[in-house]
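REVIEWER CHECKLIST
Item 1: Sequence provided? yes
Item 2: Single chain? yes
Item 3: Sequence as submitted:
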Amino acid sequence: MLSSILVFLIVLSILVLVHEFGHYFVAKKNGIWVEEFGFGLPPRVIGKKIGETIYSINLFPFGGFVRLHGENEETGITKPKRAFLGKSKRVRFGVVVAGVVMNFILAVFAFAIVYSFSGIPRETGVVKVVDISPGSPAQAGGMVVGDVVKSVDGVTVATVDEFIKKVEEKRGKKTFIELAGEKRLILSPRENPPEGEGPLGVVITTTEIYFPPVWQRPFLGIYYGFKDAVFWGRTVIMGFVSIFTSLFQGVVPKDIAGPVGIFAVTSEAAKIGILALINFIGILSVNLAILNILPFPALDGGRLLFIGIEGIIGKKVVPKIESAIHSVGMVILLLLLLAITAHDIRRLISAGGISGFIDQVLK
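Item 4: Structure as written out by the authors:
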């Protein structure tokens, strides 16, 4: 359990520190005074001033923060030209969005590492059987793992979609399957297959994993890592749309997981291996990026919203008012986090322990 907690804290810290480094880097580049860059959450344990910035280690050892001069209110500003609020809309926009960009870059980097070590996918142009369910029509008819499907009822299939479409059309009927090597089978796709299985009970693919020369793997890994990050970004956005739609309809989503749920999945990923954990870090980083860009007070998206309002009305929202709105937003987010955590704890108790809870979260 102690090692799981340590892994969880490390993962969380990586995600947050990378995010905060984005704010830090762009702020520095644009001449904003970064008063403090801290690891962990206050109160401060130790701190060292290097140049004009204090680099600190704080009591609660997870996450981190960046404190910019004149970030929230105009009172207390001693260097107006180097204050966040004193910069142009373009600069403030860049500083705010940099955290989201860094999380997306971290996701691409994480996925690229996984691809570089576990292999690169490529299209083969053939439909290959990679798994067969016990007791399925495919097994009963003599199909084996590794078979390459050439045609279904005389129609050539070269993609997964083509294969599925033809098999779906033949539910409950005898179907002629031609395989490579002049092997021919007569199978009967089930009309009502068991949950999680298709009519024939096979898993097919048109891709294979290969290992290109070592020097090519990082470049190919970044390419496929970017595609994965975009895929997960779309998935997360659709997930948020589904959640908000459910809430507007008065239905509380049951599959939302908070810190306890994330801890459970992180622990499980770490047990599988380092590559599974790195892949999960990539998924979490995309989640954090999308969550932060939402136009809600206290989030980066909320700050971008106020910059957008400033661009429309031609003047800044009174900093004290904006700061108060962000404070209210933070309180709402904390209350929501507590509610989700309480929900996770109830699920943990009802599942009879951490193992059962992990099974629920991973379903």
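Item 5: Key structural point noted by reviewer: The longest helix spans residues 217-248.
Item 6: Recommendation: ____
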